[in-house]
Amino acid sequence: MASLHPTVSGHIVAIGGAEDKTSELIILRRVFELAPKDSDEVAIIATASSIPEQLLPSYEAVFTRLGASQVHALDIQDRQQAADANNVRLIQRSGVIFFTGGDQLRLTNVFGGSATLRAIRERLKAGAVVAGTSAGAAAMPSTMIYNGAAADALRKGAVNMSFGLGFVRGVIIDSHFLERGRFTRLMEVGASNPEQLGIGIGEDAAVIIHPNRILETIGPGHVIIIDSRDLASSNIAELAMGEPVAVENMILHAMVSGHGYDIDARRYLVADDLDAILAERQAQ
Q1: Which among 39, 41, 49, 176 is annotated as catalytic?
Q2: Could you tell me if 201 and 217 are in contact, meaning their C-beta atoms sit under 8 angstroms apart?
Q3: Are 204 and 27 in contact (CB under 8 A)?
Q4: What's the rounded Cα separation, in Å, for the pair 120 and 35?
Q5: Which reaction does this enzyme catalyse, per its entry (predicted)?
Q6: Dihedral angle computed from the Cα positions of residues 14, 206, 98 and 121, in that order, rounded to the nearest 10 degrees
Q7: Paired strand residues for 201
């Protein structure tokens, strides 16, 4: 699916969940550092969460500690609030827009087609950071996973997918990936649509998606890439719903902090290669 906004100047940061919010703040510090130099306000969106009153203060404290001049806690709970002009104005002022965890279907239901979502996309195009953790990360692509048991998901139809928020095309993001054993979820997705690159993000790990569609891994956890583009064969098209899926030549990479991946070229980047590509872009 082609992106609605294929050209952006800003960065996307997808976090696997359970990121450090009290100690060194490795991931959240990097999120804040990526913001445009002239825009140090932060908008926190807790729509996905059932406990926004608990989450919003903790993220307000983190970004205040990191140097934000203002932190806007946007407790948007319905489509009327997503259309509210004041919420749109606060997004337009923010250099970081951050989605908390929770239920990603709430994000697409509340924000889909809204003025606030259009404002977020415009801010991303203009250079702002759009970041999210857990459900907030899973909802970022044009297509998202919203359900599927981890224990035995390599069966036809075991993973439920829907349209996401549309910030990045050609990838599927899954969070809490290693801790909840979600490998078979992305394998089922790859078998059904080999063009989609699977990105499984562990807890306290994240990927930065740079404007040139280069991934950079940050944080102490792992990021798993599942690449099905050169899949040799699969039986998924011939199966009845619920039957086990066979796949041949699905490629898996395990990335750690400082390593990267070229989404379009499907190429793993060791630290030196990643640094060279990012330095070249900064020099342009």
Answers
A1: 176
A2: no
A3: yes
A4: 14
A5: [L-4-(L-arginin-2-N-yl)aspartate](n) + H2O = [L-4-(L-arginin-2-N-yl)aspartate](n-1) + L-4-(L-arginin-2-N-yl)aspartate
A6: -30
A7: 223
d(CA 231, CA 173): 19
Give me the residue spans of the domains in the chain.
11-283
CB neighbour list of residue 80: distance below 8 Å, 6 or more residues apart: none
Residue 14, classed as helix, strand or coil, is: strand
Q: Is 134 a catalytic residue?
A: yes
176 catalytic? Reply is: yes
Separation of alpha carbons 195 and 215, rounded Å: 17
CA angle centred on 114, ends 111 and 118, rounded to 5° = 100
Q: In angstroms, what CA-CA distances link 138 with 2, 97, 125, 181, 227?
A: 18, 15, 20, 16, 17
* Cross-strand partners of 161: 145
Type of residue numbered 192: S
Is residue 203 part of the annotated active site? The answer reads yes
pLDDT for 77-117, tens place per residue?
A: 999 999 999 999 999 999 999 999 999 999 999 999 999 99
Active-site hit among 19, 41, 188, 203: 203
CA distances in angstroms from 87 to 72, 76, 177, listed in the order given: 9, 8, 32
pLDDT at 4: 41
- Per DSSP, 40 falls in state -
- Fold exhibited by the domain 11-283: Rossmann fold (3.40.50)
**Angle of CA points 115, 43, 41, to nearest 5°:** 120
CA distance 206 to 221: 8
- Which of 39, 49, 134, 234 is the catalytic position? 134
What values do phi and psi take at 72, rounded to 5? -100, 115
First to last CA, the chain: 29
pLDDT tens for each residue of 245-271: 999 999 999 999 999 999 999 999 999
Look up the pTM and report it.
Answer: 0.96
Identity of the amino acid at 185: R
Which residue type sits at 13?
V
